[in-house]
Write a structure and sequence with these properties.
Jelly Rolls, 5-stranded mixed beta sheet, 1 helix, globular
């Protein structure tokens, strides 16, 4: 725990202040880097504290849905049994749940905890080389825009959520207004649940024979 505190201190993590980060106590919401999808100011350092400790009917599971995540580094998710947002030195049982890497950036769909606090840390010194790049529509996208939801532990989690990869890197993954449904909003010319059908694929054309899939 001490080591973790020192790391946090040396990264100069701030809470809110510069347009990112914050103490999130609402049942659901979005976590977005400044100016998304446009470039954010670097160096960036943000901490979001998702806090379910005051929800009316615990226990809850906090789930973060990594809908629009285009960074390949700099993002870490840590659960805590207790975390004092105003005094980060008072915290209990930190455990790192997920660290975004080039390998998992496009594919990990959710991060969840049954602890009361899920802390999302984001730190980046430069934009270049730290973002996923694909298709025309994603050549110019910076940062993250993901949703979180506090589910009652016995409640049912959505059985589908999307990611950049699930949308074939050819569309944006969005959550519905109540963050309980997810879908791919495909770039112009692409269609299908996962945007895998390309401009030449029309639902009633039969250019794909033998049960193959058009893309
Ligand atoms: C909380 O989640 C962990 C896995 O992260 C699991 O091992 C544990 O049993 C869960 N506890 C409860 C009370 O559900
Ligand atoms: C951010 O994500 C939310 C939920 O998926 C979506 O409604 C919103 O349009 C997104 N914002 C941008 C700028 O893409
Ligand atoms: C479909 O299968 C038939 C028989 O195996 C073959 O002759 C034909 O070329 C296949 N069509 C395509 C588009 O692969
Ligand atoms: C295509 O799939 C259907 C249903 O799975 C099957 O009945 C049919 O024989 C398949 N056709 C070819 C050409 O493989």
């Amino acid at each position: 725990m001490l080591a973790l505190l020192l790391v946090a201190a040396s990264m100069g993590v701030r809470i809110a202040g510069d347009g990112c980060g914050g103490h999130l106590t609402a049942e659901r919401g979005v976590i977005t880097t400044s100016n998304f999808p446009r470039p954010f100011d670097v160096p960036a350092s943000c901490r979001w504290v998702i806090d379910s400790s005051s929800t009316p009917q615990p226990p809850v599971v906090i789930v973060v849905y990594l809908t629009q995540l285009f960074v390949s580094t700099g993002l870490t998710f840590t659960e805590y049994a207790y975390y004092e947002p105003d005094s980060p030195s008072f915290q209990l049982e930190p455990r790192v749940l997920h660290t975004v890497t080039e390998e998992n950036a496009a594919t990990t769909a959710t991060v969840w905890t049954n602890q009361s606090f899920l802390v999302v840390d984001f730190a980046m010194d430069r934009l270049e080389g730290n973002h996923l790049r694909a298709a025309d529509g994603l050549l110019d996208v910076f940062g993250i825009n993901v949703t979180y939801n506090m589910h009652s532990a016995i409640g049912k989690l959505p059985d589908y959520s999307c990611t950049a990869a699930k949308c074939s890197l050819l569309g944006n993954c969005y959550a519905s207004a109540d963050y309980s449904n997810f879908w791919c909003d495909c770039f112009s010319g692409y269609s299908g649940k996962q945007c895998s059908m390309g401009p030449l694929c029309h639902p009633d054309s039969d250019i794909c024979e033998n049960n193959s899939t058009c893309r």
